[in-house]
Amino acid sequence: MSDRTTDTYQSRNAVHEQFLDGFGTVRVLPLDAAADAEVIHRWVSEERAAFWGMIGLSPGDVADIYAHMDTLDTHHGFLVLKDGEPAALFQTYEPAADRVSECYEVEPGDIGIHLLVARAGARGIRPGWTSELMTVLLTYVLRNLQRTRVVADPDVRNVKAVGRFLRQGFTLGPVVTLPEVDLPDVYLPEKEAQLAFLTRKEAFPS
Question: Where do the Acyltransferase MbtK/IucB-like conserved domain residues begin and end (predicted)?
Answer without folding.
Answer: 29-77
